């Protein structure tokens, strides 16, 4: 009888073991077509696929993506990989705020599911886009085991190259499409390295090659100190600090406002005065009020609505998110352990220029987080001659911004009145992208 008897604790252990085996044996890659989404009225007017691609030796890292086919001619139109910043900000930021075919309707939250509405400015009108949640721990991306190595800038460049190669292996109809990498904010540290990684892979290891044609960056972090030091001349140019304060800071701090020598007490006092002047400025878009995301008047209110939307069980089910893979969804996960091992992406830009890859670098001119002055400074440091000098670029008879083109096929553009990401001027951003990706002058 004893042999036939299995204690309840053993049964419980067996049940737990079975559940663990089931969870860890889930398919490492999956893809699902999504025809409709909770919050959107009717069928989606575009083709959406969501899924996971496993990367790493054991494919323990499961990277979640949203793929939207071009609404024009997906067989021939470019394929764009779009990354959000952070690190740790979900690619829903790009899809629902910046350049996707849907957005969250900005209305007072009443306890029901927030609504989604169509946009008129989606970059999917002219290209197919993969919106990728990375690094692991971002959005719906997760790890099936405890990570041994924490993510890093250079590590992400390799992981995303692996993701692309595997994704294209499962979507071979897109292998011949012109391929571009794009993103904004912190992704400016990683994307130039991804371009280099893909380019090297095409020559050294990976067949068939990825049809890499260039990259797009908006208000990109490039070299932290350079970006931040240029906030001071930017603040002066925008009349946020006085002439006298600016001249004193220039003279006493000698252009170094971030890592100030502790012995330079005079400079430290001036930096303190500067901080007081800009304390209540909303740095991603200095024209807008600095308010809590719970205020409907604030751009960030959509983040609140998106959090309610993405944490709804019906939404997760519609997106085919693996059950139990993550806890609460957050738009930006600032808790991800991460190594910032690329101190400057300028050398990568240089290498990509030497390899002949065109690039579009654009800046919302009212962003103080990564001000256009710093972006122009590192572009100048590449030392390429100017092909098409500073001029306005137009939409109809209105100036939409200014642009300049360099001999290394790099186009720089400002978006007049724009902020830290395309979400602040989406129509203008779309027209700029559409012209550039089609090979037309802005």
UniProtKB/TrEMBL annotation:
Signal is among the record's keywords: yes
Gene behind this protein: LOC104791176
PANTHER family: SERINE CARBOXYPEPTIDASE-LIKE 7, SERINE PROTEASE FAMILY S10 SERINE CARBOXYPEPTIDASE
Keyword Acetylation in annotation: no
Family annotation (InterPro entries): AB_hydrolase_fold (IPR029058), Peptidase_S10 (IPR001563)
Signal peptide limits: 1-30
Protein's organism: Camelina sativa
Assigned protein family: Belongs to the peptidase S10 family.
Keywords, ordered alphabetically: Signal
Pfam families attached to this UniProt entry: Peptidase_S10
Protein name: Serine carboxypeptidase-like 7
Source organism superkingdom: Eukaryota
């Amino acid at each position: 009888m004893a042999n036939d008897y299995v204690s309840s604790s053993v049964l419980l252990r067996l049940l737990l073991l079975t559940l663990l085996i089931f969870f860890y044996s889930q398919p490492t890659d999956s893809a699902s077509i999504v025809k409709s989404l909770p919050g959107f009225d009717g069928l989606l007017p575009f083709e959406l696929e969501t899924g996971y691609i496993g990367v790493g030796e054991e494919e323990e890292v499961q990277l979640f993506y949203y793929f939207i086919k071009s609404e024009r001619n997906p067989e021939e139109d470019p394929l764009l990989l779009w990354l959000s910043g952070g690190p740790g900000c979900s690619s829903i930021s790009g899809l629902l705020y910046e350049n996707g075919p849907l957005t969250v309707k900005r209305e007072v939250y009443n306890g029901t599911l927030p609504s989604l509405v169509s946009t008129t400015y989606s970059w999917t009108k002219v290209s197919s886009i993969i919106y990728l949640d990375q690094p692991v721990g971002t959005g719906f991306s997760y790890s099936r085991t405890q990570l041994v190595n924490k993510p890093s800038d250079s590590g992400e460049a390799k992981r995303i190259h692996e993701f692309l190669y595997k994704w294209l292996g499962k979507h071979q109809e897109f292998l011949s499409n012109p391929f571009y990498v794009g993103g904004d904010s912190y992704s400016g540290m990683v994307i130039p390295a991804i371009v280099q990684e893909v380019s090297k892979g095409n020559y050294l290891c990976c067949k068939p090659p990825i049809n890499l044609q260039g990259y797009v960056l908006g208000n990109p972090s490039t070299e932290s100190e350079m970006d931040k030091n240029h906030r001071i001349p930017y603040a002066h140019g925008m009349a946020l600090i006085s002439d006298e304060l600016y001249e004193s800071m220039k003279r006493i701090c000698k252009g170094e406002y971030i890592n100030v020598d502790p012995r330079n007490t005079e400079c430290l006092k001036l930096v303190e005065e500067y901080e007081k002047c800009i304390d209540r400025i909303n740095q991603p878009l200095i024209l807008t009020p600095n308010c809590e995301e719970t205020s409907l008047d604030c751009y960030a209110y959509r983040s609140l609505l998106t959090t309610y939307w993405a944490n709804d069980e019906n939404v997760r089910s519609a997106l085919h998110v693996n059950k139990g893979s993550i806890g609460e969804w957050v738009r930006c996960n600032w808790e991800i352990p991460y190594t910032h091992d690329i101190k400057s992406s300028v050398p990568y830009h240089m290498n990509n220029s030497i390899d002949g890859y065109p690039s579009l670098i654009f800046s919302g001119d009212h962003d103080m987080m990564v001000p256009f002055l710093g972006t122009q400074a590192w572009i100048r440091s590449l030392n390429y001659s100017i092909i098409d000098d500073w001029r306005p670029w137009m939409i109809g008879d209105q100036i939409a911004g200014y642009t300049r083109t360099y001999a290394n096929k790099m186009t720089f553009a400002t978006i007049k009145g724009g902020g830290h990401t395309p979400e602040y001027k989406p129509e203008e951003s779309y027209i700029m992208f559409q012209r550039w990706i089609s090979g037309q002058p802005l």
